Amino acid sequence: MQQIYVNMYIRNKVWYNVPVEAGLEKLILDREGNGTSMEHYYQPEIECASREQIRAWQDERLVKTVKRVYENVEFYKKKMDEKGIRPEDIRSADDLCKLPFLTKDDLRDAYPYGLLARPLSDCVRIQSTSGTTGRRVVAFYTQNDIDLWEDCCARAIAAAGGTTEDVVHVCYGYGLFTGGPGLNGGSHKIGSLTLPMSSGNTERQIQFMCDLGSTILCCTPSYAAYLAESVWERGLQNQIKLKAGIFGAEAWTEEMRRDIEEKLGIKAYDIYGLTEISGPGVSFECSAQTGMHINEDHFIAEVIDPKTGEVLPDGEKGELVFTSITKEAFPLIRYRTRDICILSHEKCSCGRTHVKMTKPLGRSDDMLIVKGVNVFPSQIETVLLNQGYPANYQIIVGRKNNSDTIEVQVEMTQEMFSDNAGVVAEREKKLVDALKAMLGIYVKVSLVNPKTIARSEGKAVRVIDQRNLYQN
Ligand SMILES: [Zn+2]
Prior knowledge:
- There is one protein chain.
- The protein folds into 3 domains: about 35 residues, no CATH class; about 325 residues, Rossmann fold (3-Layer(aba) Sandwich), CATH 3.40.50; about 100 residues, GMP Synthetase, Chain A, domain 3, CATH 3.30.300.
- Helix 10 crosses helix 12.
- The chain has 12 helices and 25 strands.
- Helix content is about 30%, strand content about 25%.
- By secondary structure, it is of the alpha+beta class.
- The radius of gyration is 23 Å and the shape is globular.
- The strands form 6 sheets. It has a 9-stranded mixed sheet with strand order 8-7-9-10-11-12-13-18-17. Strands 2-1-3-4 form a 4-stranded antiparallel sheet, with no helix packed on it. Strands 14-15-16-19 form a 4-stranded antiparallel sheet.
């Protein structure tokens, strides 16, 4: 049996055994009274609220949000009228499934002001998606929206151990991209010293990391892997003081996590979010590292069957759908993320009570269909990392004589590079077999020299589809 005590730290003064509602940190003690783990919270009264309380917040906020969008946004009114749904039909979160879905195409069609629920004069910020797969989506924020978004990011930083003593090194992009501004704001809320590095200029990133003693790194996992590699190349691994990393905005595997953790000597935490919903911090990982807690006081999550739209129970894999229930300027109702996930309400060892989601197991728009088989780039990455290859690879899909071809180019490590041609051919064969076992199809493998695949300072380009099957 574990006993739970709460210690409160304010400017280095410590009070022991204060009630959990007032605590900023929780020390879980074993029977002998020894601390076994330390969990930090930013808003413990919300993050550890009872399920009944969370449900009550959701019911009340959903009803208000639906009424407000029906009255203020022509788009929602029209969609609800078409389905014959009136705002008063939505009396609790149980009624959410009656409402129509919203898709990325809807958001593009509504560009720029079609989904705005407040007058422009109430808005203070615009952020935007990268627009890599079509027309950009712009999202609007009131000051209150920014505040709540930054709270969510602060929860993620606290969960990674962030305090006023930390130096938070943000090398997500700033500007229209939400990564930089979101984590920057969250870090301010915690009271950490914030380094708004933005992306790029790896030399300067490493210099500041060493000189200014960065302790928490925020960036994409592929850039974290690149930074780790660069730190080791310069022999600076003992000069850095990093203890944690918050990595998101692209898919990464457990193998990649272990690799980054080992090289940088940190604990690596996942974070999830999307610009349409607010930005990073929609959900975040805790010390358990077994899924990301969704901030359910702001977002209601559902998992649906992507074909039928039917809501699936806990533990089933499907498309993640979000409804924002506190957003003022740009509330989204049942937004289909196209991320494939599983939800879990199982009790978490960290003490948080909000539902957990798995990291996206694939994205419906990332999913490749090759020779009729569903292929997720993350599956290929898992095979490569399991076999000791670095996460520097590219997947090239083509079409020859009306039949799909797929090739994986992967960099060898320096040690492999020195092997003779026979050994390299053997290595390729081993990878071909492992990929066939994972995917069920033949994948051509080409081992290439170290450092030949272009590095990325933002989202890595993993897939090159030369088939031009989709116009977008
Ligand atoms: Zn947890």
